[in-house]
């Protein structure tokens, strides 16, 4: 199916209409945040599910039940998705945990008034592209990626769900109220998960001793998360997400783009990146 059939244009960016109905988008627009809410914000395929495992474990002091009782989409729900309206989020005790793929400028009015805590996870866009290319082929609510070169152009032009990676990252890097936002990358978590856990815990004002940190880091290893039925999307029916084509928790590494992009594609990617990111001062750790 085409973009027109599968996507809604909301605040100028494409979103899958199946998940993001007018009712859910209206619910989000009118949502009332609390100052101690924690929001995981990502461009899709940047490490959302990983952070949805990490944050509940940190907040619960490493209690496995925090990630074994509810599926990730109910545990740390996406505010823009239909099911958020049915989860009684208003009744949840503080601190509540949410997820969103919205760019900064798309956030609803209450966000700017209340200034809840944000953990913004970034990932090397070449790996985001690679992960997306596989994922788009599995999900019936997304436009099939088609040939890789065609999808590459769409990705770099922002004609994919949640718009341009460049706009997304720049919007959250340039966001106001920086003290309420922790910027962290997928690659930092790959390089040193325990150090990343310490940074996240400090931001969330939770103290973690060495034993609990070790326990959380172990649970959040790719191979262990893959076994968690509440995080590996195995509960999603095959007609919506066909994991026989590509698993949701697919490879879990940094640099897989080297196995995916041709030399010419990587060069084209770099030229677009250089141009779009020329004003960005943030020092990313990834190997571009
Ligand atoms: P790959 O497709 O490259 O394997 P999101 O949750 O934002 O949709 O991102 C999904 C990507 O994060 C997938 O990347 C997935 O494998 C990876 N991921 C999820 N959990 C992970 C973990 N514990 N360690 C490393 N990567 C993880």
The coarse overall form would be globular
Order of helices and strands: HEEHEHHHEHEHHHEHHHHH
Bound molecules: adenosine-3'-5'-diphosphate
Main-sheet strand order equals: 4-3-5-6
CATH hierarchy: architecture of the domain at 8-125 and 161-238: 3-Layer(aba) Sandwich
Mean pLDDT: 97
CATH superfamily of the domain at 8-125 and 161-238: P-loop containing nucleotide triphosphate hydrolases
Q: Which range does the strand content fall in?
A: 5-15%
Helix content: 25-40%
CATH topology of the domain at 8-125 and 161-238: Rossmann fold
Tell how many strands the DSSP assignment holds.
Answer: 6
Uncertain segments: none
CATH class of the domain at 8-125 and 161-238: Alpha Beta
Rg calc: 18 Å
Secondary-structure content class: alpha/beta
Distance between the termini: 33 Å
Biggest sheet, in brief? 4 strands, parallel
Number of helices: 14
Description:
- The protein has 288 residues and is α/β, with parallel strands linked by helices.
- It has a domain at 8-125 and 161-238: Rossmann fold (3-Layer(aba) Sandwich).
- 40% of the residues lie in helices and 10% in strands.
- It has 14 helices and six strands.
- It has helices at residues 3-6, 22-29, 48-59, 65-68, 72-75, 109-114, 125-136, 148-157, 165-173, 186-191, 193-203, 210-219, 222-225, 263-276, and strands at 7-10, 13-16, 38-42, 97-100, 117-122, 181-185.
- The chain has a four-stranded parallel beta sheet, with helices on both faces. The protein has a two-stranded antiparallel ribbon with strand order 1-2.
- Bound molecules: adenosine-3'-5'-diphosphate.
């Amino acid at each position: 199916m085409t973009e027109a059939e599968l996507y809604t244009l909301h605040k100028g960016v494409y979103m899958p209409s199946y998940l993001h109905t007018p009712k859910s988008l209206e619910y989000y627009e009118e949502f009332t945040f609390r100052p101690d809410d924690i929001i995981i914000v990502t461009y899709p395929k940047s490490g959302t599910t990983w952070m949805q495992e990490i944050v509940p474990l940190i907040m619960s002091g490493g209690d496995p039940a925090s990630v074994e009782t509810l599926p990730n989409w109910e545990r740390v729900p996406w505010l823009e998705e239909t099911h958020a309206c049915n989860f009684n989020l208003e009744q949840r005790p503080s601190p509540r945990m949410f997820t969103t793929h919205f760019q900064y400028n798309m956030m609803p009015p209450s966000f700017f008034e209340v200034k809840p805590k944000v953990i913004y996870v970034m990932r090397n866009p070449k790996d985001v592209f690679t992960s997306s290319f596989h994922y788009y082929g599995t999900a019936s609510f997304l436009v099939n990626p088609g040939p890789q070169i065609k999808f590459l152009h769409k990705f770099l032009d922002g004609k994919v769900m949640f718009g341009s990676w460049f706009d997304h990252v720049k919007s959250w890097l340039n966001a106001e109220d920086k003290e309420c936002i922790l910027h962290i990358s997928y690659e930092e978590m790959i390089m040193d998960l325990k150090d990343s856990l310490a940074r996240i815990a400090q931001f969330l004002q939770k103290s973690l001793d060495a034993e609990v940190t070790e326990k959380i880091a172990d649970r959040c290893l790719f191979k262990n998360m893959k076994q968690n039925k509440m995080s590996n999307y195995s509960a999603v029916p095959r007609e919506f997400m066909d994991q026989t084509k590509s698993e949701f928790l697919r490879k879990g590494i940094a640099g897989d783009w080297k196995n995916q992009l041709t030399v010419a594609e990587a060069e084209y990617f770099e030229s677009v990146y250089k141009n779009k990111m020329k004003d960005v001062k943030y020092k990313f750790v990834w190997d571009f």
